[in-house]
């Protein structure tokens, strides 16, 4: 019996995955190299420091811990420039009607994001009040693919993992949901997210019943 949905934020509710990509790429270019959109898939859902470590590895660059802190800060400053310009028009198409359909069915809602900026983004787009629990990068000690962020979300609602569906656009996020015993819906491309219980391209035209049917059919 499904009682709640836990949403990743970046790339699921808003297209901030694009802003992360632009800001990280700006940092890589600043350091004298570039990386591809395909490599960027590996950064989705991954914490700021883990992302930086991967990018430095791709560029074959070594930095001290202090330098890494400075680089992460530089990227975050650029990223915040982008997100502080956001408003509700950036909520991805289909998301609001989908949240409404959950409300109508009495399904509870939470956010489970690795981002320390999740609170800022939810405020910018005016959605903070729609979620019963918001677990963000400030509340976790282990980043996706560890299931901690979703486990804390379920705990905050006093629910078991198997009573919750996690919506994720990241490979690492789907891994996290599966590792925690949640039902996982991938939002994006089958080729990246095929390990989820069910994959949707986006929320356009979707209602809660469609998700339940999709999960059932896939089994
Ligand atoms: C995740 C994003 O939601 O948050 C990652 O998918 C990002 O790309 C991570 O690195 C951490 O975000 P922030 O805002 O704390 O740097
Ligand atoms: Mg994401």
Q: Which consecutive residue ranges, at least 5 long each, have pLDDT under 50? A: none
- What is the count of helical runs? 10
User: Helix share of residues?
Assistant: 40-55%
Full CATH superfamily name of the largest domain:
HAD superfamily/HAD-like
Spell out the helices and strands N to C.
EHHHHHEHEHEHEHEH
> What's the main sheet like?
6 strands, parallel
Please report which band the strand proportion falls in: under 5%, 5-15%, 15-25%, 25-35%, 35-45% or over 45%: 5-15%
Distinct small molecules bound, one entry per kind: 6-O-phosphono-beta-D-glucopyranose, magnesium ion
Gyration radius, in Å: 17 Å
Q: How many domains make up the 3D coordinates? A: 2
Question: What is the CATH architecture descriptor of the largest domain?
Answer: 3-Layer(aba) Sandwich
Would you give an account of this structure?
The protein has 219 residues and is α/β, with parallel strands linked by helices. It has two domains: 4-15 and 88-218, HAD superfamily/HAD-like (Rossmann fold, 3-Layer(aba) Sandwich), CATH 3.40.50; 17-83, Putative phosphatase, domain 2 (DNA polymerase, domain 1, Orthogonal Bundle). The chain has ten helices and six strands. The chain has helices spanning 16-30, 37-40, 48-59, 65-83, 95-104, 118-124, 148-156, 171-179, 190-193, 208-218; strands at 4-7, 108-112, 133-135, 164-168, 183-187, 198-200. It has a six-stranded parallel β-sheet with strand order 3-2-1-4-5-6, sandwiched between helices. Helix 8 links the parallel strand 4 (164-168) and strand 5. Helix 1 packs across helix 4 (65-83) and helix 3 (48-59) crosses helix 4. The longest helix is centred in the middle third of the chain and has 19 residues, at 65-83. The chain is globular, with a radius of gyration of 17 Å. The two termini are 15 Å apart. The model has no long low-confidence stretch (mean pLDDT 96).
């Amino acid at each position: 019996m499904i009682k709640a949905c836990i949403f990743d934020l970046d790339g699921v509710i808003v297209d901030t995955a694009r802003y992360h990509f632009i800001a990280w790429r700006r940092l890589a270019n600043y350091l004298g190299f570039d990386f591809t959109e395909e490599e960027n898939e590996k950064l989705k859902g991954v914490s700021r420091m883990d992302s930086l470590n991967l990018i430095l590895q791709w560029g074959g660059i070594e930095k001290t811990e202090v330098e890494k802190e400075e680089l992460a800060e530089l990227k975050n400053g650029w990223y915040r420039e982008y997100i502080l310009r956001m408003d509700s028009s950036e909520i991805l198409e289909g998301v609001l009607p989908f949240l409404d359909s959950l409300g109508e069915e009495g399904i509870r809602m939470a956010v489970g994001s690795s981002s320390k900026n999740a609170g800022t983004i939810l405020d910018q787009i005016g959605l903070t009040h729609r979620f019963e629990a918001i677990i963000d990068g400030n509340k976790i000690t282990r980043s996706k693919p560890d299931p901690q962020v979703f486990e804390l979300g379920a705990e905050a609602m006093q629910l078991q993992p198997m009573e919750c569906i996690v919506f994720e656009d990241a490979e690492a996020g789907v891994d996290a949901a599966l590792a925690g015993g949640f039902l996982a819906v991938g939002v994006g491309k089958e080729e990246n997210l095929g390990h989820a219980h069910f994959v949707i391209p986006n929320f356009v035209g979707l209602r809660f019943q469609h998700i339940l049917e999709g999960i059932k059919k896939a089994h």
